[in-house]
Amino acid sequence: MSDLDKVTALLKRLVPAAICDDCIAPRLKFSHRQQANQTTTKLERLNGFDRRKGYCKWCGGTKKVIKYVAGKTQVINTTATIKKAKQVQRSASRTTQTASQPALSDIIDIGFRPIGHWYEERGKLKFNQRKMQENSPAMYSFVAGERVMYVGETSQTLAKRLYFYANPGLTQSTNIRLNAILLRSLLEGSPVEIFGYYCVVPTKVGIFDLDMAAGLEDAIIQKLQPHWNKRK
C-alpha cells in the first residue's frame, strides 16, 4: 500500500476529524515527519481532501491539518492521478528552484540524517528529537520544504543546543532570532525538520586539534548560503 493510500484510509476512518502531519507520521510508522508532509501535500491537490490551518483532533495543536471530505470522493490510487500530481510538483520545482536555493540532498549526501522536527504549542516553540540527543560535538540543520534554511554546529549535546533555541535567554541574540523565525514558519503552515550530523573523527595537524564541525559549517554556509544563517 502506498503512502497516499495509507493516509487516505486513515483520514476516512477519522471523518470528519482533521489531523496534522506530526500525528500522522508516528501513527502510520513513517520514518520521519517529512514523509507525512509530502503525502498530505499531494492529497491537498486532489478533490476530496481539505488541508488548511486548524485544530488537530489528536494533539490539540493549531497547525496545518488535513481531513477527508465525505461526499467529494476521487480515486487517488490510479497511475494517471499520481503521475499528474508528480508532474505538477516537478513543474513548480523547476519554476522556483535557482542555483542559490540549497537543496536537502546536498547535506544528506555528506551524512546528515533526520533526527526530529519543530512544532508550535500554544504559541511556544517546541521540538521532538528522536535521535542523536547526546551526540557532541555535532552539526545540525533546519529544513523547510526540501530546502536547507539553517546550518549550525555545537560542542554541547544536540538536545541541549536545540533546547536553547526553544527557550532563549534574554541575551542570546541568535537563539532569540531563530526562535522567532521558526515560530513564524510553523504558524504560516511551513513544517521545519531537524537534521543532524555527528562528527566522530578527531582531526589533528601535528599537536594541534582541528575543529571539523566549525570548518564544515563555514564551508556549507559559504556554498549553500542558507536563508536563516545570519549574513556576515
Note the beta-strand portion.
Answer: 25-35%
SSE order, one letter for each helix or strand:
HEHHEEHHEEEEHHEEEH
CATH structural class of the largest domain: Alpha Beta
Number of strands: 10
Number of domains: 2
Mind describing the biggest β-sheet?
5 strands, antiparallel
* Total helical segments: 8
SSE inventory with pairings:
Elements: H1 3-14, E1 19-20, H2 21-27, H3 33-44, E2 49-55, E3 62-68, H4 79-96, H5 104-108, E4 113-121, E5 124-129, E6 138-144, E7 147-154, H6 158-166, H7 173-187, E8 193-198, E9 203-205, E10 208-210, H8 212-224
Antiparallel strand pairs: 1-3, 2-3, 4-5, 4-8, 6-7, 6-8, 9-10
What features would you describe in this structure?
It is built from eight helices and ten strands. The chain is α+β, with helices and mostly antiparallel strands and 232 residues long. The chain has two domains: 3-94; 104-224, GIY-YIG endonuclease. A five-stranded antiparallel β-sheet has the order 5-4-8-6-7, sandwiched between helices. Strands 1-3-2 form a three-stranded antiparallel β-sheet. The longest helix has 18 residues, at 79-96. The model is unreliable at 72-79 and 95-100 (pLDDT under 50).
